Amino acid sequence: MNKLAVVKIGGNVIEEPQALSMFLKDFSQMQGPKILVHGGGKKATAMAQQLGIPVQMVDGRRITDAQNLDIITMLYGGKINKNIVARLQALECNAMGLSGADANAIQAIKRPIGTIDYGYVGDVTEVNTSFFQLLIDHGVTPVCCAITHDRKGQLLNTNADTIAATVAVALSKHFQVSLWYCFEKQGVLEDIEDDHSVIENINPKKYALLKATHAIHSGMIPKMDNCFEALKKGVSKVKIGAPPMILGKTKHTTLTLADE
Amino acid sequence: MNKLAVVKIGGNVIEEPQALSMFLKDFSQMQGPKILVHGGGKKATAMAQQLGIPVQMVDGRRITDAQNLDIITMLYGGKINKNIVARLQALECNAMGLSGADANAIQAIKRPIGTIDYGYVGDVTEVNTSFFQLLIDHGVTPVCCAITHDRKGQLLNTNADTIAATVAVALSKHFQVSLWYCFEKQGVLEDIEDDHSVIENINPKKYALLKATHAIHSGMIPKMDNCFEALKKGVSKVKIGAPPMILGKTKHTTLTLADE
Known about the structure:
- The structure is a homodimer.
- By secondary structure, the first copy, chain A, is α/β, with parallel strands linked by helices.
- Helix content of chain A is 36%, strand content 23%.
- Chain A contains eight helices and 14 strands.
- In chain A, the strands form four sheets. Chain A has an eight-stranded mixed sheet with strand order 5-8-2-1-11-13-14-12, sandwiched between helices. In chain A, strands 3-4 form a two-stranded antiparallel sheet.
- In chain A, strand 9 and strand 10 form a beta hairpin.
- The longest helix of chain A is centred in the first third of the chain and has 25 residues, at 66-90.
- The mean pLDDT of chain A is 94.
């Protein structure tokens, strides 16, 4: 089975021009087939403010009304995605931007209204693996923004972490997939105050122990639960750390289902 | 040689939601391989005003500074392109959005500064025909926005008419290409005041005559010169008219190099 890397970059890599430049250079040098998934960080909120459009948050989660969906589509699907693609092209990486609507790459359903109406938010239902495979087979690097569609004409805002995990799981039928979450820390830390306390390997047993002893910051738990879920569904390893880890430049955390 | 239709839609089809809906329905029903090229009409100017960004025009042509390029990238590459793609997907047309940067589809150079500095405006230098062919061979309908790149990391604003003509010419090596310009009139008119005076066929001889007798509105001349140029470079026919012409619903003008 061929290898495939699915790399997700988050808020601060997108927000800081120098961090983005460094990441794109590293990413372009990463060997083998790869997919990039990006969110948009706080830029959407800033733009909504500039346009005088109210941003409604419930429990720290954005409510995506029609106007905010437009902003997300303009920023994530337009400005951020196209600039990343153009810059990767300049670095000899044959990048191609995608929303979930493009070639029906990632289909979703609008989240049903429960106690909260999240608005135009999508939960992924299907990944068009043959289309991703076609691109990869032809040396193209897909660059996915965090937008899906319902195949009824509606675009939907979708969490970029989830898109990365879902695409990685779907493609693990055809590839040996590694899933890389780049963020501002060097990895999962033993001590949140000490950036050098990176836990290099975590398996389910170690994870259970870390949770039992409250050694992991509570904010990491849902994220790590999703990572182990992806591993159970076929992803071969998950990496969490700062962007330079993708070239093996920095220590980072590797999550696997391995017994040892 | 297989047939291929390259269809360009302009300002008012993009600007009027109902006109766009009608067009997309017709376009989705157009048989055979096809490519859609769209501009963004006056929406970019409206958005610049909303954001308080000055729009500089010289001789009726927009100067594209960095801020206006961002707006164009957000609107044409993001909001307009992704919404068209999602709506075509709902109509069972397997659309995929592209800027020129995506998979290096359309490369350009920044227009050299002459008497006027147009800013970030691109003149097309190369079309990645093998990539278009790959998509078409797999039943994908490319939807191109009017943005190119210089392959040095810079996006460039490019005239949508020119993109349509250049893509049509480049692909005429592999396909029998028809090039369709949809606009607000039924075609080239004998009498600008009379919408029914459509000239159905124009060849170079007839065109010379129409120009000599001043029977064509002067605004049409550069557009038609470009059409005949595309025909000379390999496009098999050019169609000018209102959007429903693409399904043969309305009279329109056909330009060819035919002697009769």
